[in-house]
């Protein structure tokens, strides 16, 4: 243990006693600031009283013969005018030895330009000694030519034949030995430290820092910042940065804003955002003013953690300080808003950013485009895609992948593939994620052959399909009923060393259930557990749905209890599956009990939950109970969907409550929802029975405009009406439509 370690250990006790004395202080930040000031003051006093002096420079003296030669060379150098040095010194070349260099430098050291020229001349003849090398570095630093000193050191330490471990102590010894008489500028050790850091000799850089403490010198904060920055890129870099920051703080380094920004970034990378925020708040107490990078880093940390409220508060604090957000700040805000599904608010931030003169970059547009695609608003995403190209920003594969994902989710795989081809034409290389996104889109669209073609293309490009790629393909095969092919694909995955995950197994379980093979689905679930993968809520819900649809409600209920016993919580989808199963079997009372249990467990129902109950009460022609459930749903703040309105409209039409049905239809249209074909038919026939032909006719035309077609009875009614009106052309047109969509479809087994 060296004397500084002993000093630090002794003062830990003093820090503890200060904590006891100031235990009632208003702020822990002010306490830390007080202790830091006291500690550094004590350390400085200790260092000044114990610092070792630099050694005197005592070179060996020249002989009388050497002295004469050195005098001649020195005088020749000083008296030369514009002649080239090699011509001026040619008479002395044969007699010149490496040890003459230092003695000549003693005579010409006040002429910096002459020192460099003579050193270069000497190096062309033979390598200078380490001592001479260090002397020239000292002279360069004293002449404030840091660039030259840096170059001389860098050339020495990047020599491929250099033995670093052997050379470091010798070089440092000579640099210390020549310091007092040749330069006396502490900056020389900063430059040496920086060179060691730049070439990656970090361990020796730290040894240099500790060595300088013996001489009462602390390297500059800029050098220490460079050291922290390079530490962050090493193995376990973040932990090393934080540990070194603490150690050097204790040794008296007065950190600046750039230092704190590095530490804040490291804390955020370790998901210690609260600690990073705490350090941000302490900076001013430690004598540093946070800048826009300090705030932006913390904002980014909270954004990734989804803490929107805290982000907004920090932005307010930042604006109070008069700091303007930069592009990094804006991107963090846009990111968290997109994550929260508030993409319109995120775009407003983009507009504010542009109005403040901050130019958005690729990352900002990529974040927003991804947000709109995930929200299903492809038109807005394309608008931003066009806008970024107008701004001369070139979309990268991240932007293209987001758009491809959005198009695939909307079922527009043809457009997605066109965009993919455009991306390749523009020279942007697709990665595994891009290919997998498009493969998944084609699988969901039932285009399995094209999906496998893309898989083959991906492999030819040297990209390795991952578990997500194979899961997408397996899921597509399952949905096509090709379960044997899906199983073969899983064997291929295992052979390639890929571990099947819960998503892959769930795709297969879902495929077996859809094909009616529940026994094999249960067997696969058991295989999952043997493989060490626990079935999740989705697995159980899929099986419950299959049992409900096959009328095995008792088995579905048993699975629910098994799921609960394993600590898995049912979701709204789980309850919806069971409620729908009970309702379809006519057990409405049991369905109501499940709804009540769902509410007691704190699971919020959605429109689908209530639709199952309303549908069965409506089928029973009990519109009073149907309306009661609808009102309960609205009272809970649950927004009705298109299915809700279609169920209610059909029910009221059958009960001849046409006023209520018409009111619901108008409400539905105002919300941008569309009537289903059977709801249209029910409304039209209901109005005809009430002899409200004008309303019936308008609805019939609306239905046809939307590409929907009525049944044979409905076409017959309107054919009679048009024939009686004498509109032969319209009658013939309607007759052709009736034949095409009713008679031909019926004969070919199609659905009207």
TrEMBL record:
Supply the Gene3D superfamilies for this chain.
Tetratricopeptide repeat domain (1.25.40.10)
* PPR repeat locations: 256-290, 291-325, 326-360, 361-395, 396-430, 431-465, 466-500, 501-535, 536-570, 571-605, 606-640, 641-675, 676-710
**Keyword set, alphabetical order:** Repeat
Q: Name one GO molecular function term.
A: mRNA binding
> Which GO CC terms are listed, alphabetically?
mitochondrion
Instruction: Please provide the Gene Ontology terms (biological process) for this protein.
Output: mitochondrion organization; RNA processing
- Similarity section: Belongs to the PPR family. P subfamily.
Q: What is this protein called?
A: Pentacotripeptide-repeat region of PRORP domain-containing protein
Q: Which organism is it from?
A: Coffea canephora (Robusta coffee)
């Amino acid at each position: 243990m060296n004397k500084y370690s002993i000093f630090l250990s002794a003062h830990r006790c003093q820090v503890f006693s200060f904590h006891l004395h100031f235990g009632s202080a208003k702020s822990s930040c002010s306490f830390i600031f007080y202790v830091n000031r006291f500690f550094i003051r004590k350390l400085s006093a200790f260092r000044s009283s114990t610092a070792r002096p630099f050694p005197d420079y005592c070179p060996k003296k020249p002989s009388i013969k050497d002295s004469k030669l050195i005098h001649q060379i020195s005088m020749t150098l000083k008296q030369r005018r514009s002649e080239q040095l090699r011509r001026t010194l040619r008479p002395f070349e044969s007699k010149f030895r490496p040890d003459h260099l230092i003695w000549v430098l003693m005579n010409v050291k006040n002429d910096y330009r002459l020192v460099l020229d003579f050193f270069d001349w000497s190096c062309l003849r033979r390598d200078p000694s380490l001592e001479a090398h260090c002397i020239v570095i000292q002279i360069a630093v004293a002449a404030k030519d840091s660039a030259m000193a840096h170059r001389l050191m860098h050339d020495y330490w990047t020599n491929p034949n250099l033995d670093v471990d052997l050379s470091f102590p010798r070089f440092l010894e000579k640099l210390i030995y020549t310091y007092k008489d040749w330069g006396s500028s502490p900056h020389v050790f900063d430059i040496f430290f920086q060179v060691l850091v730049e070439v990656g000799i970090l361990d020796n850089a730290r040894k240099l820092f500790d060595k300088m403490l013996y001489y009462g010198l602390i390297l500059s904060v800029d050098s220490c910042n460079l050291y922290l920055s390079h530490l962050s890129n090493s193995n376990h870099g973040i932990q090393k940065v934080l540990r070194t920051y603490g150690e050097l703080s204790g040794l008296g380094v007065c950190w600046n804003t750039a230092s704190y920004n590095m530490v804040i970034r490291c804390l955020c990378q370790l998901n210690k955002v609260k600690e990073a925020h705490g350090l941000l708040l302490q900076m001013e107490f430690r004598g540093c003013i946070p800048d826009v990078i300090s705030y932006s880093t913390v904002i980014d940390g909270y954004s990734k953690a989804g803490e929107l409220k805290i982000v907004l508060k920090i932005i307010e604090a930042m604006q109070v300080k008069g700091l303007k957000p930069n592009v990094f700040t804006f991107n963090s805000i846009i990111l968290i808003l997109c994550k929260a599904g508030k993409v319109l608010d995120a775009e407003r931030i983009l507009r504010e950013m542009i109005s403040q003169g901050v130019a958005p970059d690729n990352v900002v547009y990529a974040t927003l485009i991804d947000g709109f695609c995930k929200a299903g608003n492809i038109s807005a995403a394309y608008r931003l895609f066009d806008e970024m190209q107008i701004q001369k920003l070139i979309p990268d594969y991240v932007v293209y992948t987001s758009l491809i994902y959005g198009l695939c989710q909307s079922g527009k795989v043809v457009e997605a593939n066109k965009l993919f081809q455009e991306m390749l034409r523009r020279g942007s290389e697709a990665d595994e994620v891009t290919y997998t996104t498009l493969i998944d889109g084609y699988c969901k669209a039932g285009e399995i052959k094209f999906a496998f073609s893309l898989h083959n293309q991906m492999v030819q490009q040297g990209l390795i399909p991952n578990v997500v790629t194979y899961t997408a393909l397996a899921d597509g095969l399952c949905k096509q009923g090709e379960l044997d092919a899906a199983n073969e694909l899983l064997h291929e995955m295992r052979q390639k060393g890929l571990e099947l995950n819960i998503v892959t197994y769930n795709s297969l379980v879902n495929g077996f259930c859809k094909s009616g093979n529940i026994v094999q689905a249960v067997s696969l679930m058991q295989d999952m557990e043997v493989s060490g993968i626990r079935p999740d809520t989705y697995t159980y819900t899929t099986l419950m749905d299959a049992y409900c649809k096959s009328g095995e409600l008792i088995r579905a209920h048993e699975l629910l209890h098994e799921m609960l016993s394993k600590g898995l919580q049912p979701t709204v989808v789980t309850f919806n599956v069971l409620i729908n199963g009970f309702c379809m079997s006519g057990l409405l009372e049991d369905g109501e009990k499940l709804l009540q249990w769902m509410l007691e467990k704190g699971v919020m129902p959605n429109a689908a939950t209530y639709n199952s109950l309303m549908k069965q009460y409506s089928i029973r022609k009990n519109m009073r109970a149907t309306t009661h459930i609808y009102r309960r749903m609205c009272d809970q703040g649950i927004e009705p969907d298109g299915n809700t309105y279609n169920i209610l409209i059909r029910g009221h039409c059958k009960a001849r409550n046409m006023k209520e049905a018409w009111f619901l239809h108008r409400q539905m249209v105002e919300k941008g929802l569309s009537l289903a074909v059977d709801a249209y038919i029910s409304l039209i026939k209901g109005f005809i029975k009430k002899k409200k032909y004008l309303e019936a006719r308008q609805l019939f035309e609306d239905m046809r405009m939307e590409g929907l077609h009525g049944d044979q009875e409905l076409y017959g009614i309107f054919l009679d009406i048009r024939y009686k009106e004498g509109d032969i052309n319209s009658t013939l047109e309607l007759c052709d439509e009736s034949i095409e969509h009713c008679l031909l479809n019926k004969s070919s087994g199609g659905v009207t």
